[in-house]
Amino acid sequence: MAAAQDVHVRICNQEIVKFDLEVKALIQDIRDCSGPLSALTELNTKVKEKFQQLRHRIQELEQSAKEQDKESEKQVLLQEVENHKKQMLRKTAKESLAQTSSAITESLMGISRMMSQQVQQSEEAMQTLVNSSRTILDANEEFKSMSGTIQLGRKLITKYNRRELTDKLLIFLALALFLATVLYILKKRLFPFL
């Protein structure tokens, strides 16, 4: 029974060391991660899983220590359990830092996306302003062209009005001359003695 307990204790210690190294490696990977948020989240999840396994193994080691027959072996194993718990607490702080780092990174990426959207909207607004300015300039040029056409039309209408007045005056004079001629002819024919 004691041999089986010793084997179980050694296996627990080996697995604790293994999980401890894996957690350290994952925390280093989190520090070095500059990739997308999904990669950071995946690493964070793996760290949590390894911590769960590490806690479980420490609890198994603690249970084995309590089941030891010799008080000296029991105290040695309980001291090891305490040391592992203290190390795990320090690693938990690192995990907390990693989670905080992950949250900050997520927040910064969100801010970056918002800034990118703002820049995109600003570019679209700028493009709209450029297009509007171009339309206004085209309309202004067209207005200048129409203004010239309107001025020419005004001059032509004024000239036409003067021509109409002149034509009326000429028609009136021609009619008066015609009537004077008719009267002269009638006078000479009807009243030759006058």
Automatic annotation (TrEMBL):
It comes from the Eukaryota. It is a single-pass type IV membrane protein. It is found in: Endoplasmic reticulum membrane. One of its GO terms (molecular function) is SNAP receptor activity. Keywords: Coiled coil, Endoplasmic reticulum, ER-Golgi transport, Membrane, Transmembrane, Transmembrane helix, Transport. Its main location: endoplasmic reticulum. The keyword Membrane applies. Residues 37-87 form a coiled coil. GO terms for biological process: retrograde vesicle-mediated transport, Golgi to endoplasmic reticulum. This is BCL2 interacting protein 1. It holds the Pfam family Sec20. InterPro entries: Sec20, Sec20_C. GO terms for cellular component: endoplasmic reticulum membrane; SNARE complex. Belongs to the SEC20 family. The gene is BNIP1. Residues 100-190 form the Sec20 C-terminal domain. The chain crosses the membrane at residues 169-186.
